[in-house]
């Protein structure tokens, strides 16, 4: 890939960009890490986000953004290598361990992460969080899913609809 | 306090947009999706979207259906070996009539018939069923049209009164061990059925045409 003229030469310091969260916190991060986001990649390739400008992210709050960047920074080197050839088994195991730890978080944070990963189009993070939520609900009944994901108790109407369905198809969930 | 926390979490789970939800649903086996449909209305609407259903169907092509009448327990069994090599689930429901058999199947939907000539479509994954309007049919064949994404049924109607018509399917005399093992072609494994599952008539078909013919298995035995 051709480096932009402003030069993030291999010897010098890596090019940095600034991201601004919805609550106006500024995050300075390597361009390579931020570029894991497809959404940001174009802006960064165009030379945006450097200097005092910063890229505003009105949909992402600072707590979520710092979590997102933690993921990006960890995964940037592997992504730069294109994954396979240089990655040793140890590296991959380390990333896997990191990923497992990473999604071991409070549910509200997890949901914010899903939306952030989606808005920023960070493919690896999208599938990581989607897989986490999928694992949480796999094989569960409707009520168990509601409880697991923190839905409030169903309203009487919802409960009545569910009961009607279970009456008809209940044997399917035995 | 606890209540408040639950409410906050609820709001955030509802904030997840449909596209992101789809990412989660893509990773789940069809059986869990059937349960997910009942979680809330917006989930139901995402999961009822024909595009999503079509996409999910394409992801999990390796689907094999199996249907049997279990006289001893007076129930019908419909099984799906699906989604990947490990998952298998089955539906067991009270037997509606003495002899239910499979006319045909496609795309994971079984087309069932019984001795009264009634025809029913059964989706063993979601357990939804649709009884087609009588009068009776001799044979049904179903085909999935990928262009219109519709399941089409063709049936032959009988002119003669039912009483003069006899169905020729013979009930296969049973030995328990006939049905202890089910070999799935191209998947290279044997699946052990519960040993208390003597069945009277079995037919299975799957979408990609890799049929397992139980009659043949029986003849070999």
Short description:
Chain A has 174 residues and is mostly helical. Chain A is built from eight helices and three strands; from the N terminus they run E-E-H-H-E-H-H-H-H-H-H.
Written account of the structure:
- The complex is a heterodimer of chains A (174) and B (221).
- By secondary structure, chain A is mainly α.
- Chain A has eight helices and three strands, in the order ββααβαααααα.
- In chain A, strand 1 (16-20) and strand 2 (26-30) form a beta hairpin.
- Chain B is α+β, with helices and mostly antiparallel strands.
- Chain B is 24% helix and 32% strand.
- Chain B contains six helices and twelve strands.
- Chain B has helices at 2-15, 18-26, 30-36, 41-47, 50-59, 214-220, and strands spanning 64-70, 75-81, 88-94, 100-106, 109-114, 119-123, 128-131, 137-145, 150-157, 181-184, 189-192, 202-203.
- In chain B, helix 2 packs across helix 4.
- Chain A binds chain B through residues 107-108, 111-112, 114-115, 117-118, 126-127, 130-131, 133-134, 137-142, 145-146, 149-152, 158, 162, 165, 169, 171-174, and chain B through 6-10, 12-13, 15-17, 19-20, 23-29, 31-32, 34-40, 91-94, 126-128.
- Chain A: Part of a SCF (SKP1-cullin-F-box) protein ligase complex.
- Chain A: Belongs to the SKP1 family.
> What topology, given as strand order, has the largest sheet of chain B?
3-2-1-12
Overall mean pLDDT score of chain A?
A: 81
Give the N-terminus to C-terminus distance of chain B in angstroms: 66 Å
Using only C-alpha atoms, the radius of gyration of chain A works out to 21 Å
Poorly predicted runs of 5 or more residues of chain B: 1-9, 135-221
Secondary-structure content class of chain A: mainly alpha
Q: How does the helix and strand content of chain B classify structurally?
A: alpha+beta
Beta strand % of chain A: 5-15%
Low-confidence stretches of chain A: 1-11
Q: How helical, in percent, are the residues of chain A?
A: 55-70%
SSE sequence of chain B, one letter per element? HHHHHEEEEEEEEEEEEH
Number of domains of chain A: 2
Number of strand elements of chain B: 12
Overall mean confidence score, pLDDT of chain B: 58
**Morphology of chain B:** elongated
């Amino acid at each position: 890939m051709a480096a932009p003229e402003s030069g993030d030469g291999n010897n010098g310091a890596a090019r940095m960009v600034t991201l601004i969260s919805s609550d106006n916190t500024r995050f300075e991060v390597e361009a390579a890490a931020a570029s894991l986001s497809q959404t940001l990649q174009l802006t960064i390739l165009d030379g945006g986000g450097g200097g005092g400008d910063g890229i505003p992210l009105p949909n992402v709050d600072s707590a979520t953004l710092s979590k997102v960047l933690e993921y990006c920074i960890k995964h940037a080197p592997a992504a730069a290598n294109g994954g396979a050839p240089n990655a040793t088994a140890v590296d991959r195991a380390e990333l896997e361990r990191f990923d497992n730890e990473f999604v071991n978080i409070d549910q509200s944070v997890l949901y914010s992460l899903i939306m952030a990963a989606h808005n920023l189009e960070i493919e690896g993070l999208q599938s990581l969080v989607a897989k986490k939520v999928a694992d949480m609900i796999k094989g569960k009944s409707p009520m168990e899913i509601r409880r697991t994901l923190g839905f409030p108790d169903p309203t009487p109407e919802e409960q009545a609809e569910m009961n009607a369905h279970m009456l008809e198809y209940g044997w399917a969930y035995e | 306090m606890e209540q408040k926390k639950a409410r906050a979490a609820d709001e955030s789970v509802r904030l997840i947009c449909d596209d992101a939800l789809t990412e989660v649903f893509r990773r789940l086996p069809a059986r869990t999706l059937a349960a997910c449909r009942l979680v809330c209305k917006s989930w139901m609407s995402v999961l009822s979207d024909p595009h999503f259903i079509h996409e999910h169907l394409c992801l999990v092509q390796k689907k094999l259906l199996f249907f049997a009448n279990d006289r001893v327990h007076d129930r019908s069994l419909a099984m799906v070996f699906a989604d990947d090599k490990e998952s298998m689930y089955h539906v067991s429901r009270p037997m509606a009539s003495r002899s239910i058999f499979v006319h045909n199947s496609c795309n994971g939907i079984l087309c069932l018939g019984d001795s009264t000539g009634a025809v029913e479509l059964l989706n063993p994954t979601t357990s939804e069923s649709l009884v087609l309007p009588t009068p009776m049919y001799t044979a049904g064949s179903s085909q999935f049209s990928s262009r219109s994404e519709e399941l089409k049924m063709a049936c032959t109607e009988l002119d003669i009164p039912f009483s003069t018509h006899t169905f020729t399917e013979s009930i296969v005399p049973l030995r328990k061990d006939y049905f202890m093992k089910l070999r799935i072609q191209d998947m290279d494994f044997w699946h052990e059925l519960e040993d208390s599952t003597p069945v009277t008539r079995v037919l299975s078909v799957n979408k990609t045409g890799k049929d397992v013919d139980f009659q043949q298995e029986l003849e070999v035995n």
